[in-house]
Amino acid sequence: MTTVSATEHTRRDFLYIATGAVGAVGAAAVLVPLVTQMNPDASTIAAGAPIEVDLAPITEGQVIKVFWRGKPIFVGHRTKKEIDEARKADLSKLKDPQADQKRVKEGKDQWLVLVGICTHLGCIPLAHAGKYDGFFCPCHGSQYDSSGRIVEGPAPYNLPLPPYEFLSDTKIRIG
Fold this sequence. Notes:
Blueprint: H1 11-36, H2 42-46, E1 51-54, E2 63-68, E3 71-77, H3 80-87, E4 111-115, E5 126-129, E6 134-137, E7 142-144, E8 150-152, E9 164-168, E10 171-174
Antiparallel strand pairs: 1-10, 2-3, 3-4, 5-6, 6-7, 7-8, 9-10
């Protein structure tokens, strides 16, 4: 009769370890897709999940474009001159009169966040263009000021404001 000491490994020990390893791999193979399928689908995210934008790299006078819900969103860091010009505009001469203060968050006047779609036929305006150094739609000539308000051209309304909030001094959440 052969006796095996406790320090030697047997075939049975190997089978236990191999069976446990295969079981662990199998459990992971089942759990990973199960957990992954609980995340929102890419089309759901594209359909309206909020996005966060870091404002720190945006220099004064710069306008960046991000996308939310498939729409271009302009995030602009306005200069003191742009803010002053927007504030002194004669509201009675605007097609869609709206004070600049109502188009920005209180205390954050330098940050302008707009949906970058012309209200005439849905074109994408150019930033820092046109007579008013605001937004200019080259398709049909709509001119917006530095607050995104329609000044002249066929567009009937100001550039819309998306829902957004400041998470900190250098970060916003759109949506």
